[in-house]
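Handout, section B. The chain below has 732 residues.
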Amino acid sequence: MPDAAALPTVEEAVALGLTRDEYALVVEKLGRPPNQVELAMFSLLWSEHCAYKHSKKLLRTLPTEGEHVLVGPGENAGVVDAGDGLACAFKVESHNHPSAVEPFQGAATGVGGILRDIFALGARPVAVLDSLRFGDPATSERSRYLLDGAVRGIGHYGNSIGVPTIGGEVYFEGPYEQNCLVNAMALGLAPRERLVLSAAAGVGNLIVLYGASTGRDGIGGASVLASAELGEADEDKRPTVQVGDPFEESKLVECSLQLLEQGLIVALQDLGAAGITSSASEMASKGGVGIDLHVDRVPLREADMEPFEIMVSESQERMLCVVEPARVDEVIALTDMWEVHGTVVGEVTDTGHMRIYDGGELVGDMPVAALVDDCPIYDLAPAPPAAPLYGPSPATLAPGVSVRVALLELLASPNIASRRPLFEQYDAIVQSRTVRRPEECDAAVLALPGGAALAASIDGNGRRVAADPYWGTVAVVLECASNLACAGAKALGTTNNLNFGNPEKPHIAWQLTEAVRGIGDACRALEAPIIGGNVSLYNEGASGPIYPTPVIGMVGRMPDVERAGRLAFAQEGDAVAIVGNVPPSLAASELAKLRGEALPDGLPPFDIAQVIAAQDAIREAVREGLLSSAHDVAEGGFLVAVAECCLAGGIGATLDLGPSDDPWTHLFGEGPGAFVVSGHPTALAQLAERIPLDVFGAVGGDALNVSIADEKFEVPLGELREAHDGLRRFFP
């Protein structure tokens, strides 16, 4: 061990992200000052990204158990029972700060990382969805650069590795100008018996590292960047962004699954944020054991790497597994066959310590509990802001315009326009499981063996959460469930990604606390527990925090893939109706944004049970084949939803909405639990026996004809389509 003169100072500890009090606690836990290797490991494992030290208490309030949950929070991903002996692993995770620094590699390695979380459990990755946030592309060159790079990065990694990108969302708001959000969700399938956990076990068992060689790329990347606010010197942070190789990961997938199929490994863990440090320490903690690691055995692609660099490198496409000594030759032979060469780098011990060796010299010795379990957990001090945090968006809708003009402007707005320019860059059908592609249904649908199917959705709405962290978040969760209902599926479980600003500020702590409370209440009501997720804090720049953005992902099951729902109007003469009794509101709506209105102080509350009742009715109607189409009313309101159904089906509709005291709220108001459905009149009459609905029109023609109050107008489908293609202008 180095002498005292060579030990890092407290100032160096602070530079690595520890507070002075945290450094003092490290000294107390060790009974001495840490050396360079130990300080590097503590600084990463006690970072916000790894320790969740400002959110862990809140996360413990969320529901995590349910009849379909096989693996809950704490593993690489959560797992639910998909029926017929299959398990579905899924999770959403962020790569926000790396993507803000280097969008292509940041987004690409975000996809690679979430895929490793899936196959680390023994599940074959079968789908990716993404949730993206950027500044205004119409006014910001930087936002266009980040958008282009992130989309290309997602497409590059997913397309190259052969995993379809089947859905997602993208929104553009001023508060994301300096700090974009790149959240990726992945799903995987496995026979239940192939599932594996990450807890190290068996004293004397060996630790095998396989995959790519270790380099200096990404040293301190995700873990350091995710715990710091972004500033103007972000270019200097490019070396901390990892570089991905999807072709290497494709070999890693096949090798890992074969290792599990042959029963060759005891535990499996991917290497992500904090690299070997995090993976090995967490495996030891979960297993209640110690681990000895030999950094001189780690295959390197750069010469003269220091022990601490090896321990904290975030080089991609690497896995760590626990192997019985008698099976290690078989493991190494299999990794050699797949050209992801395995190396024995350590062993499981009964010491309860992480011990790091370099050429036989002990260069680090830390209690596992101190590293992983004893990080200080902080109480938040939530308080509503004394003044508005976010100013209004610039008005883009001229005052006094007609309903017709407003509809076209909404359809063309970046937050509502067709996402086709993005989806065209993604392979949505590779692996041949995709039943509903993007923009064919509110949720993506994947076929399962035996005739059943899974539906997946990802949702968020930062602007509405900024207006009301509790009710805005409840609405996000319910909208995700509504998307599944339109496909004919009921949620098996939920994953979340909490994207917020600096939690040490009372107003951000308040946003976070209220949002988590909303997630908990909504998930309990839906019986869709949280099975895992991610927290991304300190998403701020010089101009302030991002909108509070809880992103919700859900996976549901439907018994008959042939009955999977569609959003497109399909049949001339079908009746069109609206289901749902929650009154819409223009508060924090997309129309209010286009008008340049300030965010309101709160949103109208609503009856959660009423929304769920509407979802249940829609789901059963889809499963019974009563409906030709089903589409939830979301951003832009009812009339936008109808226009989207027309465009998806290439057929018009005629609506007679009768008198209205407030036609603008009627047509463009937003709120959860409303659905536009179409079907044969007798079928809708059957649905009306179960839940109230209003029939207000019929499918047919080549235009959208609307009559409400004293206003009548017609918009040809071609004009609707031209407006709806408004996002394409931002793609070369």
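Note. The longest helix spans residues 141-161. Compare this with the example in section A.
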